[in-house]
Amino acid sequence: MSSRIDGEALLGKLGDRFSGLRGRLTPNMGMEKVTWFRAGGPAEVMFQPADEEDLAAFLQAVPEEYPILVVGIGSNLLVRDGGVPGFVVRLSAKGFGEVERVGDTQLRAGAATPDKRLAATALEAKIAGFHFYHGIPGGLGGALRMNAGANGVETRERVVEVRALDRKGNVHILSNADMGYAYRHSGAAKDLIFTSALLEGTPGETYEIQAAMNAVQQHRETVQPIREKTGGSTFKNPEGTSAWKEIDAAGGRGLMIGGAQMSPMHCNFMINTGTATGHDLETLGETIRSRVLQNSGIHLHWEIKRLGLFRPGQEVQEYLGQLL
């Protein structure tokens, strides 16, 4: 298939395959509308399925040679300016955002459930152990894929099982062990699209859970640029240290390239000050990685997920090796 983004042509070629779908297909969908960075090129075709059955039908209809990527709330995505070829699946809250109590200490939630809503539902059900989600700006699908965590708790501590669809639309039920969790990582097959999960906490009292959630919120407001256009933590914490400490020591706090800046408040947060392109953001990130490598010998690894194609002549190489 061509590397040029042309959603109208793609739908014109494959449109008959999608005649029975109930979800929405949108050609050349601007990803700046759905990512928290508010930057980047278009998705060649975006599909928002009505529900899991509709998603399965879509997956069965797309020929194997066309790539399919799934996104959620878009809080930790950096989309390159050349756009995302093939199909981007975006799970909506309407079809995948339900969360319900299914036992004394268990919740079943759709992959598009906002993390904050998960925490609020657990509070209402008096289930402890979900307070950390109150401080994670994302959705459950991303949390499952990246083993999202905060305040000393990780997603893997809550997962009982995960429901997913493979590239052919087949249903899979994955146990906690099947997910292959590590720090900010899941070993589950990359082509699996998570649709829901069964999660478990512990019995708790409302006042204790609320106090824990309040502490999470106070911490975020004090040290994180939560009102900026940001993707959350940019880099994973290296073993034995914190990414922000290494960035700070390398002179990265407040560093700007184009409209992209490492936050002066929390220098492991990259922000779009208003005019940043995907190229600005990724160039800044790789410049920071280069500075830290030169300063301390530490290799920072991206926590933000980067998608799509570079514009011709605007490729960004890993570890730029230059101090800007």
From TrEMBL:
It is an enzyme of class 1 (oxidoreductase). SUPFAM superfamilies: FAD-binding/transporter-associated domain-like, Uridine diphospho-N-Acetylenolpyruvylglucosamine reductase, MurB, C-terminal domain. Residues 38-204 form the FAD-binding PCMH-type domain. It is found in: Cytoplasm. Its cofactor is FAD. Its EC number is 1.3.1.98. GO terms for cellular component: cytosol. The keyword Transmembrane does not apply. It catalyses: UDP-N-acetyl-alpha-D-muramate + NADP(+) = UDP-N-acetyl-3-O-(1-carboxyvinyl)-alpha-D-glucosamine + NADPH + H(+). Pfam families: FAD_binding_4 (PF01565), MurB_C (PF02873). Pathway: Cell wall biogenesis; peptidoglycan biosynthesis. Keywords: Cell cycle, Cell division, Cell shape, Cell wall biogenesis/degradation, Cytoplasm, FAD, Flavoprotein, NADP, Oxidoreductase, Peptidoglycan synthesis. PROSITE patterns: FAD_PCMH. GO terms for molecular function: FAD binding; UDP-N-acetylmuramate dehydrogenase activity. The active site is at R184, S233, E303. GO terms for biological process: cell division; cell wall organization; peptidoglycan biosynthetic process; regulation of cell shape. InterPro entries: FAD-bd_PCMH, FAD-bd_PCMH-like_sf, FAD-bd_PCMH_sub1, FAD-bd_PCMH_sub2, MurB, MurB_C, MurB_C_sf, Oxid_FAD_bind_N. Belongs to the MurB family. Cell wall formation. This is UDP-N-acetylenolpyruvoylglucosamine reductase. It comes from Phyllobacterium myrsinacearum.
